[in-house]
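Human: Note token order:
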Amino acid sequence: MSLTISSSPAYRSFVGNPIRFSLLTDSEQPLLCSLTIDGQVVYNFTHIPFQGVCLFDIADILAAYIDTPIPESSQTDIVTPIRQGYAVYYTLTVTTGIESETFTFDGIGFQGGISKRLMRELQSKGLDMFSYRLCNPQRQFFFTTRTNGRNIRIRENEVTPLIFLAPVENITLVTDSGRLITITGLATQTLYALNIPAVRKTVFDTYNELPAYFSLLIADHYVCDITLLPTISAIEHNVLLFRNSLGTYECISFDAVSTRTLESADKDQSSYTLFDPQTSGYVTGYFRLPVSPVQNTETGIRPPSELLFLSDLLSSDDVYLLTSDKSAIPVHVTADKFQLPGISIEPISVSVTISAVESDAFYSPEADFRQPSNRFGEWIFENKYLNSWGIIYNNRRLIENNNS
């Protein structure tokens, strides 16, 4: 009995794309398959060969064991290691019947995926997304969907940690004024987050400059650059945090005035009939009606190159509206008419709808954890002092030390 591998995925793969194995055997006996994650067997299954071929995909199984956390940006550490959540290490073991011939494959499954069009294009060149860009020290290697090119442009109110697999141990950042920041001691092929606010703070503390442009060098060779664009001037900014197609979190801001409405549930099920003994008649009663807040706004005037990034947000399965106190509200974003000109470079705006993912029959005002601006004293009208809570009080101590 023989067992040979016809095709297998690369060592690093996205669980949103196929992670397919094709095995050849001359036996009709079922193959025993075992999937191990972090040293623990999590899934056992059998596969019966068909005409000597066993073909199966384990992407969906691996996806269940990846829970991507939202990274927190650091103001002090330029790079921070990503210790868990974005990838899963696995071992697939396939064993034949009586003769127990074994095939073993080790790999890493990453959250996310790439488009079918790009997958076909890369496969035609003998590449995958990791060998093409994400593990390639000669190309821009950040897990961003803003661009696959070398020039990353980010609005200042859209800055989030840039996740990357360290291709080398040392990386150099150069500002537009020639200031150098060297990052050393990186563990190669380990996930890190590049914190842009920490980079800017380091340059400002050292040189009293606040850079908006960085070139990234490896071994004195240019790899890519990051440009921070000014926030679009607008009365209102709605910043959305979402998980992009490559499994990491990025922000996009809608810089336009919005309108807010409440969408209610089925009104036909919100009422009931109640007998009124005083009038010997029937009156209509109502249940508390769950409502969902809906926000209609626009992206704000932007070039088409920036609006293409919006398509990733519209497909995302994990989106949050960031409030002024940095709390995150789960939402769903749609665009009734996402239409961009084919060849025009004229900036345009796209209408979008931000809908809460849950409805609520109860209302609560926003929590207020602020402290009063003045010290509380006696609630009397003496001296007529008025504190920030609108209460008149006395400014002297309630208990005074006569010996002082």
About this structure: Confidence is low (pLDDT under 50) at residues 377-382. Residues 221 and 261 are 53 Å apart (CA to CA). The radius of gyration is 29 Å. Residues 196-207 form the longest helix (12 residues).
